[in-house]
Amino acid sequence: MSDPHLNLINGAWVPGDHLSENRNPSDLADLIGLYAAGTAGDVTAAAGAAAAAQPGWFAAGPQARADLLDRIATRIEADATDIATKLAREEGKILPEALAETRRAAQIFRFFAGEALRMSGEALASVRPGVDIEVTREPVGVVGLITPWNFPAAIPAWKIAPALAYGNSVVLKPAELVPGTAHMLARIIHEAGCPAGVFNLVMGPGSVVGRAMVEAPQIGAISFTGSVPTGRAIARAAAERMKKVQLEMGGKNPMVVLDDADLPTAVAACLNGAFFSTGQRCTASSRLIVQSGIHDAFVAELTRQMMALRVGPALAPDSQIGPVVSVQQLAGNLSYVDLARAEGCEVVGGERLDLPTEGHFQRPALFLNARNDMRVAREEIFGPCAAVIRVADFDEALVVVNDSDFGLSAGICTTSLRHAREFRRQARTGMVMVNLPTAGVDYHVPFGGTKGSSLGPREQGRHAAEFYTTVKTSYSFAG
Ligand code: NAD
Asked: Per the database record, which ranges form the Aldehyde dehydrogenase domain (predicted)?
């Protein structure tokens, strides 16, 4: 353990208010490291440094920005095993998932290296003779990035990379549970030659560091991923200060299985969507909406495969499902298991598991005979728990799909082209999957949802420019 891990402000590693312990949810005896918890003053310093550095960073031009992002991508690829190991140790996802996420982070930096060169605008003729019009994109300035614990590499990457590519400077605050991966990313960005102040890392509690970021006058835009209550509080505070916000929040993602589905495809999609990454994905399939004719065969096979999943430490080679991230999250999951019983579901699995190392292990759970008006079908659990809701036909399935406060991702398993087509058009979500899990997305296309799941422009792909740039319209008359 090389300690302590400090914040990066204006190109220098600085201590915060105190040091915070980072422990392994697969083995609480494993202390991963001590990480600086910053103060509001640290945020002021980071935001000030970022504001001072930003004009020079934009003026350096697209080649300099593309080159930096490219070097960062190369370093992440080279260090992928180390980064993924730390990620798996602190977040709890199994090593293959952590490696895939880390490689995804590198791909995102590489994608936005290209986008830096493709920052484009429009030239139009004016309605007034002799006047030319140019519509160009400019950076917002300083952006504040606030990230959750469940994708400690990919989510910071998909915010940092477009922010830097389009010429902004950055203050990043990662979730308290996963400072290690963010710290490794920060070190890579710093060592890849990012100019002082262009990228700043301030770790620490949301109530101190996150709040100060939303309040900092130099920070012009906040991109946040996390829970709905935090998102709502950020939106309120940002509106008072006229800040641009992008909020990516929760989900209660439906997966429909129709009678005509290919059973192995449907079971594989639901097993993956509901339980992989311990169900700790905003796009996890947490409502399985199953037509009567296939219901019993589907439930029998999904139950069999779910109960065979090997729950274990994130770094153990035979683990398929890692631990829940924290003791609080585990307690929340277990209380939803109790609630499912109290609401009248038959519960399969879901119990806490005692393994040789002390960690937050839980067997995945199915809540059978659920109804869509139950709390277990309406509230995001964010754990390895899925409610199974029986429906009579496609039309009823669609009503259930759209009867939710969330609208992130929706899926359908069917061999009917007509139903697949209708579903893609009628599902009120930002992402729709046909014969694929609701979770698992590409990095070069937009990501985001509707209703309570998202607010503001989409993340990722070329659509990221909507948030990370502002549009300027210039008129000129040559005389
Ligand atoms: P959270 O809301 O508790 O925390 C998210 C971040 O906000 C953390 O960095 C936290 O420190 C910070 N924060 C907390 N209070 C704050 C405040 N008052 N001001 C500013 N920042 C503050 O969420 P979490 O538990 O880390 O993550 C789980 C949630 O994230 C789930 O609801 C999940 O669905 C959601 N999520 C959404 C997406 C998506 O893209 N839609 C992706 C991943 C996770």
From this structure: 19-473
